[in-house]
Design brief:
Number of helices: 5
Number of strands: 0
Number of domains: 2
């Protein structure tokens, strides 16, 4: 993929993100800072960066290093990619029936596997702790509706 094509892709993604801002429902409470402000600021900043990158790529100042010698994919790259994507699919499919923590743990283990970490007890423990802490902070402390940590416990 050339830098110009990448710039067009980034700008298209920013366009989708801007469209998504328009479908965020307004807050029912009167607030000076609504639920759209922070995402809008982030989308605006990313759009500015994408436009600057596109301008630089159009002028030929961005190079594609992936075409250089020695930049081929490492062995097992397809397995790593499918492990990364599979982690997201596992989370999406299992979060409703199993709660947040178990699918989050499995997703984390798949993502760790994509970065060549082994499937073992250490990965299970670390990913389980991260998923549990995320659930506790967002669901209990901040009140975000993530559902139960484990359906049979809470």
């Amino acid at each position: 993929m050339t830098p110009v094509r990448l710039a067009f892709l980034l700008i298209a993604v920013c366009g989708v993100a801007a469209w998504q801002l328009t479908v965020i429902p307004p807050s029912l409470m009167q607030m000076t800072v609504g639920p759209v402000l922070a995402p809008a600021a982030i989308v605006a900043a990313l759009t500015l960066v994408a436009l600057l990158y596109g301008w630089s790529a159009w002028r030929g100042r961005q190079v594609d290093m992936s075409q250089d010698e020695g930049q081929e994919a490492l062995p097992g790259s397809t397995i790593r990619m499918f492990s990364l994507l599979g982690g997201g699919v596992v989370f999406i499919v299992l979060v409703i029936p199993l709660g947040f923590v178990l699918p989050g743990t499995l997703c984390g283990m798949c993502i760790a596997r994509a970065f060549d970490a082994p499937f073992n007890g250490k990965s299970l423990l670390i990913c389980g702790l991260i998923a549990g802490v995320f659930w506790f902070v967002f669901a209990r402390l901040l009140g975000v509706g993530l559902g139960p940590a484990l359906p049979w416990l809470f």
